[in-house]
Amino acid sequence: xxxxxxxxxxxxxxxxxxxxxxxYPSIPLSFDDIYVYATQGDRFDILAQQYYQDSSLxxxxxxxxxxxxxxxxxxxxxxxxxxxxxxxxxxxxxxxLNRY
Length: 100
Known about the structure:
single chain; globular; alpha+beta
């Protein structure tokens, strides 16, 4: 899933394109969520590939774990990670929030 498909594109005064702000949905807790402990080298994109078969959905896992650093793909070793399972609803909400 390309997160930028739903995002408005603007242009600078010199014609250089840039993306508008992306809004991320809140991801409610669910009994279906999976919890794992991060091991050395775990990254949001690798977990997304493993659990969703799509590494571009890394932002779902990252957003669901807002207590972790959001400025890196890497997850601190030993942290418990929540992996949401109802990603269809999360993606639908993402698309609604970013529709223009």
